From TrEMBL:
Gene Ontology terms for molecular function: ligase activity
SUPFAM superfamilies associated with the record: Adenine nucleotide alpha hydrolases-like
Record: residues binding ATP: C7, S8, G9, G10, L11, D12, S13, V14, S15, L16, A17
This protein's name: 7-cyano-7-deazaguanine synthase
Organism: Defluviimonas salinarum
Enzyme Commission no: 6.3.4.20
Amino acid sequence: MKTVVICSGGLDSVSLAHMVAAEHELVRLVSFDYGQRHRKELDFAAKCAARLGVPHDLIDMRAIGAHLSGSALTDDVDVPDGHYAEETMRITVVPNRNAIMLAIAFGIAAAQKADAVATAVHGGDHFIYPDCRPGFVSAFEEMQRHALDGYAAVRLFTPFVHLPKSAIVTAGAKHGTPFAETWSCYKGGTTHCGRCGTCVERREAFHLAGVADPTIYADSDFWKVAVAAAGH
């Protein structure tokens, strides 16, 4: 299955890229600059493409992202600390982001005569992000079937959509993903902050998977407090 992987440079998408490279035929990575404050993640996507020996398409979506306002990822709004599944994390939603990115990736896949577009949405995303849920995945794939009817047949590959992030860590470890060469923190500092939702979720996932976490966190213990407060 010739597959295009949407790769942000984060733990999930880099692990997915390594899995696809091992189990299918990885043809290219596609990344998006939508003005995110943690743009440094894109450097890790580029490293992943180089490591796996495939082209890397970096799509400039900054003009579009400027209009998708109200998110802590793109606006001058503080990224909240705490567990990923807390209500406060809704401020990190960028409206319609995944739908826009997927539509572009499907166009690229069709032009490149690829069989699939892979994205690393997972079970932990469902509470906060509507465009990561199984219903969206099914509906989007059906929409694209109509959009490309008679031109190309491209499927949407989401192997993690029903799985927790810890399962992604397990899969990543199986396929030799260099976890230190991934970026999750939404604050985009010098090191992972250890306090934002993605840092807490990342640290918790390694713990649950029983895999050593090579990440350097500015606050390496906050995740325990956040997990306990969220009742996890």
